[in-house]
Amino acid sequence: MSRKEEKKSKSVLESGLESMALITQLGLIIAIPIVLGAMGGHWLDGKFGTGMIFSLILLCLGIAGGIVGAYHQVTNVMKWKK
Fold it and tell me: Contacts for 75-82 with beta carbons within 8 Å, 24 or more apart?
């Protein structure tokens, strides 16, 4: 059975579950670096008494990392679906 025939034979339930899994993965890929960056920055700010400098820097890095990770995940899924 070729890949095109497999795609046609998938049920609506399987397609919906795959979509939900992708959305969950993307949410985690975006959220985890942001939360870890914010928490790490808050901890460093408390340790060194620097106000919010580390929090902002690591939050921005977490956002960037989440976006890059989501982009890579989506491109991998698009390659797999071809």
Answer: 77/22, 81/7
Tell me the per-residue pLDDT of 2-22, one tens digit each, with 9 for 90 and over: 555 555 666 878 888 888 999
Q: Tokens at residue 27, please? A: 């949410």
Instruction: Name residue 26's amino acid.
Output: L
Within 10 angstroms of residue 64's Cβ, the number of other Cβ atoms is 13
Contacting residues for 57 by C-beta, under 8 A, at least 6 apart? 41
Predicted TM-score (pTM) of this structure:
0.81
CA 5 to chain centre: 30
Give CB contacts under 8 A, 24+ apart, made by 44-51: none
What are 41's two structure tokens?
């920055």
CB 5 within 8 A of CB 41: no
